[in-house]
Amino acid sequence: MLLASAQGWADTLRLCYHYGCSKQVSFEVSEAGRARLAEIFSGVGDAAAERDAIAGAIVALYREAAAHAPISADKGGNFGDGSADGRMDCVDHSENDTTFMRYLAGQGWLRHHRVEKPAWRAPWIVDLHYASRLTDAKSSETWIVDSWFFDFGHKPVVLPYQQWKKGYTP
């Protein structure tokens, strides 16, 4: 959970990993990391650009978190990383991505979207999957931010909720 400060959200974030958030660590966003995030959002002028910036910021925050937890071992999906410490399932990714987006919102960098609770889908009944969710503040369109599909360090996909809900896989 994010820790509140008088200026908004503090720079201390919680990260979970090891499937089902069974391991957790807190880390502080460094001064250099915060400057990098501010730069990512510096040219954002509309909702589409903000979604792209969010994807880049999530990668930057995961890289920062990797100095405090072994998450760089994470592979896309659930089967590529075997029993590696630092592996993450969709529950871990959806919680972390949501935490990161709430942090970005708390810093005032999200002007075109609201961060929502994670979404879930089960398009084939047994294929339960969670991901982070945003709502466009102007159009009310819902978007999914999903970093689970790819190996550590890759930008998450950002796509319309209805497309993801139908079972989207890159």
List the helices and strands and how they pair.
Elements: E1 4-5, E2 8-9, E3 12-17, E4 23-28, H1 31-41, H2 47-65, H3 90-106, E5 113-121, E6 129-136, E7 142-146, E8 157-160, H4 161-165
Antiparallel strand pairs: 1-2, 3-4, 5-6, 6-7, 7-8
Helix pairs in contact: 1-2, 2-3
- End-to-end separation: 30 Å
Overall pLDDT level: 92
**Low-pLDDT segments:** 1-8
Widest beta sheet: strand line-up: 5-6-7-8
Q: In the residues, how many domains can be counted?
A: 1
Figure out the total of helices.
4
- The overall strand count is 8
> What sort of overall outline do the alpha carbons produce when their principal axes are compared?
globular
Relative helix content:
25-40%
Characterize the main sheet.
4 strands, antiparallel
Q: Roughly what fraction of the amino acids lie in strands?
A: 15-25%
Q: Please state the CA-atom Rg, rounded to the nearest Å.
A: 15 Å
- The SSE string, one letter per element, is EEEEHHHEEEEH
Query: What structural category characterises the helix and strand content?
Result: alpha+beta
Report on this model:
The structure is a single chain. The chain is of the alpha+beta class. The protein has one domain (4-165). Helices cover 31% and strands 25% of the residues. The chain contains four helices and eight strands. The strands form three sheets. The chain has a four-stranded antiparallel beta sheet. The two termini are 30 Å apart. Mean pLDDT is 92; it is low at 1-8.
